[in-house]
Write a structure and sequence with these properties.
alpha+beta; elongated
Length: 62
């Protein structure tokens, strides 16, 4: 009987799957040095992003 692989816990904490199988992730660059970033940029960084299909193919074991 084949052994199933373990879930990569670091990846499971960073990404979330949608109902259609796409991956959602948070933008990097929102932790510190916020005074040098514009208000518009900080607002955009606060939203979740959908990962492109090419990048998502690397994270199929989540």
């Amino acid at each position: 009987m084949a052994k199933s692989g373990k879930t990569r816990k670091s990846a499971s904490k960073r990404f979330k799957k949608t109902g259609t199988g796409k991956l959602i992730f948070r933008s990097p660059g929102t932790r510190h040095l916020l005074t040098s970033k514009s208000r518009k940029r900080k607002r955009r960084l606060g939203k979740d992003n959908v990962m492109s299909p090419g990048d998502a193919a690397r994270y199929t074991s989540i």
